[in-house]
Write a structure and sequence with these properties.
alpha+beta; Nonspecific Lipid-transfer Protein, Chain A; five-stranded mixed β-sheet; 8 helices; 5 strands; globular; disordered N terminus
């Protein structure tokens, strides 16, 4: 943020052009907020914008050399004000992200709240710790889920 904060976190973030925010800056913003603040931010149109931008960047942050010949469909279910579902399909060294739930059977499904999702994708949350404390639930291939972070360039705050 630019120091002209109005004191209202949601208004401050709503004014951000997320497309122009570098992944490292996004990671710093997430790191600076408590889980309660992250949950407060993830409401309404702002939540839609944030999720859209995060999932929109996955394709660019995908590391095909790390994925090799991996073929997998990963379903993300982010719980909060409402359930948001996205799917990441990895095949032939490419990554495709689509909103919504397809009829295809995912190899793994990740379920987490808004704050946990933001911490995970910004490099501010440890997926193993989140899993062990049940803040991240995994259905299907747990091994694939545990290695997902190596297939993407995750920013560091």
């Amino acid at each position: 943020m630019d120091g002209t904060s109005s004191g209202n976190l949601t208004d401050d973030l709503a004014g951000l052009d997320f497309a122009a925010v570098a992944p490292e800056e996004f990671a710093r913003i997430v790191k600076s907020l408590s889980a309660k603040q992250l949950t407060e931010v993830m409401r309404g149109e702002l939540r839609t914008r944030i999720l859209g931008e995060v999932f929109g960047r996955m394709k660019q942050q995908f590391r095909p050399e790390a994925a090799g010949g991996l073929t997998a469909l990963i379903r993300w279910k982010i719980t909060g004000e409402s359930d948001a579902v996205y799917e990441t399909a990895i095949a032939a060294g490419a990554c495709r992200v689509t909103p919504g739930r397809s009829d295809a059977e995912p190899r793994t499904t990740l379920v987490m709240g808004d704050a946990e999702f933001l911490k995970l994708v910004s490099g501010n949350g440890n997926p193993v710790t989140m899993f062990m404390t049940r803040k991240l639930k995994v259905a299907g291939d747990v091994g694939l889920a545990s290695g997902l972070t190596r297939y993407f360039d995750i920013p560091k705050a």
